[in-house]
């Protein structure tokens, strides 16, 4: 009987700790207007890095540390990837970033998802949206969003890791203006 009582108490404590981590992640994420961060991105084994600014909802500006001066910009409707020699224009809604940059949608989704402890440090939420598998990763201690992994309809795996994260900074709105084609 003592063992059964101990097991019930133990499971209750684990459940409440998990719930409080999830609640803390939701609360912190809800209070973010924008994020600035350095990133490392691995797309099918090709590693790139740089820095980004996200403004919710659905705006992002990333400058890559590459000789080709690659930038990625989304203004809420469209996504442009520009280098010295190329220019790609996409409707944002056709990309996994449409979901990742929609904070309100992510909060609703996280509320209804089971969290998975990836390690002692990270919590993961996984779901599929518009044929894209999306994994969000949060730091278990700070509750910060620390990265995401997507698998698109072509089975391209993209992993983005965030570091040096700053929240709710003063931003210049013109950075989200789509670059023009050369």
Distance between the first and last residues' Cα: 76 Å
The ordered H/E elements are: HEEEEEEHHEEEEE
Number of helices: 3
Per the principal axes of the C-alpha atoms, what is the gross shape? globular
Into which percent range does the helicity of residues fall? Answer: 10-25%
Which value, in Å, is the CA radius of gyration? 18 Å
Runs in which pLDDT lies below 50 for 5 or more consecutive residues are 2-18
Beta-strand residue fraction: 35-45%
Derived structural class: alpha+beta
Output the CATH class name.
Mainly Beta
Strand order of the largest sheet: 6-5-4-3-2-1-11-10-9-8-7
Biggest beta sheet attributes: 11 strands, antiparallel
Q: How many domains would you count in the coordinates?
A: 1
How is the CATH topology named? outer membrane lipoprotein receptor (LolB), chain A
Compute the number of strand runs: 11
Query: What's the mean pLDDT score?
Result: 88
What is the CATH superfamily label? Lipoprotein localisation LolA/LolB/LppX
Specify the CATH architecture: Clam
Question: How would you describe the overall organization of this protein?
Answer:
By secondary structure, the protein is α+β, with helices and mostly antiparallel strands. The chain has a single domain, classed as Clam (outer membrane lipoprotein receptor (LolB), chain A), CATH 2.50.20.10. It contains three helices and eleven strands; from the N terminus they run αββββββααβββββ. Strand 10 and strand 11 (157-167) form a beta hairpin. The relative contact order is 0.18.
